[in-house]
Amino acid sequence: MSDKVAVLVAGSWGTALASVLVSKKLNVMIWSRNAEQVREINEQHSNHRYLKGITLSPQLKATTDMEEAVRGAAAVLIAAPSSAMRSVCSQLKSCVKDNALIIHATKGFEIESLKRMSTVISEELGRSEGDIVVLSGPSHAEEVIRQCPTTVVVASASSEAAAAAQDLFMNHDFRVYTNRDMIGVELAGAFKNIIALGAGMSDGLGFGDNAKAALLTRGLAEITRIGIEMGSNPLTFAGLAGIGDLVVTATSRHSRNWRAGYLLGEGKALEEVLSSMGMVVEGVRTTQAAFALSEKHGVQMPIADQLYHVLFKQRDPRTAVMNLMGRDPKTEMEMMPLQTWEQWHS
Fold first, then answer.
1. Is 33 annotated as a binding residue?
2. What is the pLDDT of residues 168-188, one digit of tens each?
3. Is residue 110 located within the same domain as residue 194?
4. Which CATH number characterizes residue 73's domain?
5. 19 among the known binding-site residues?
6. Is 137 annotated as a binding residue?
7. Which positions are catalytic?
8. Of the residues 13, 128, 166, 304, which has the fewest C-beta atoms closer than 10 A?
9. Rounded CA gap, 123 and 103, in Å?
10. pLDDT in tens, 201-213
11. Is the pLDDT of residue 343 over 60?
12. Containing domain of residue 199, as a range?
């Protein structure tokens, strides 16, 4: 079997995961449309725009030719932004092997259709969605690239595909668990970015630890609520893709979503924030998707609702917080219907 792995694309996360694969002595080729970036990776062994101050392994090769990147690859890892996933997969279809393992590490939705990334990949490649693997969990690229201890989860309806992905990535500093709940892992990884935006905004407003703890806790409740409605196992949200990724994304300055929220809390406009970031902030698009999904499924997502109005309807962040605090009294254990609780605990 070939030891070649193709990685699409060369952002911070794709480059970090490619470096994990290189550490396993695999033949890794990363693809980018940007010729200057490809030249930098191949000649200077760096990717300065996305991972400043990091020296990459000379064994990591880059190309602008997707057919070259994918030719003969036993596995393809897709780490494209959610907005580019369909176009990348459309290009990939003509050159990927029929039996290649397909893994994606993108946390978001296709806004126009509200589809998860595995659904988009399945449609474009003509593959069964159940054979696709999603990689998620608490994992900043800036720490993975420096070989800090990291634990993630790979999920697929196919236990064989999940086990193959686990074997592909797992090493002494990158521990990988498997999970059969691909839908839950995808939803948890996407929705937590909304709560991270809110946590950053709370910090930017100077509201302190009490407010942030409440946002994380109630945020987890609402993303679990919508996750159950969309077919997830609620226990997934208590795992690495849920609580684990929520904590790391909502509390770290490495997090683009936290940083974007912080700047919004300081009073900066969304356009100014996104321009200053220089990289994709998936939580912004995901907030838009969550607002639509909550209406479609009839599930209350008060934090996502308020953030949507801050991001897209010019609501003042302080007003949004006051709206959350002024909601009607609730009981805490409203996060799942009784029959769902009984289903998972029978």
1. yes
2. 999 999 999 999 999 999 999
3. no
4. 3.40.50.720
5. no
6. yes
7. 192
8. 128
9. 15
10. 999 999 999 999 9
11. no
12. 183-345
Give the separation between CA 257 and CA 306, rounded to whole angstroms: 16
Report the distance separating Cα 249 and Cα 179, nearest Å.
21
Same domain, 276 and 147: no
- Is 313 annotated among the ligand-binding residues? no
**187 membership: H or E segment, kind and range:** helix 182-204
Distances (CA, A) of 140 to 73, 124, 172, 268, 311: 26, 28, 17, 25, 24
Residues 215 and 115 grouped into a single domain: no
Q: Are residues 49 and 157 in the same domain?
A: yes
Q: How far is 168 from 176, CA to CA, in rounded Å?
A: 10
The residue behind tokens 């769902």 is 340
Question: Domain holding 341: CATH number?
Answer: 1.10.1040.10
Same domain, 273 and 158: no
Per this entry, what is the length of the chain?
A: 346
The answer to whether 12 is a known ligand-binding residue is: yes
Q: In what order do the strands lie in the sheet with 27-31?
A: 61-63, 27-31, 4-8, 75-78, 101-104, 133-136, 150-155, 174-179
Domain edge (last residue) among 156, 180, 204: 180
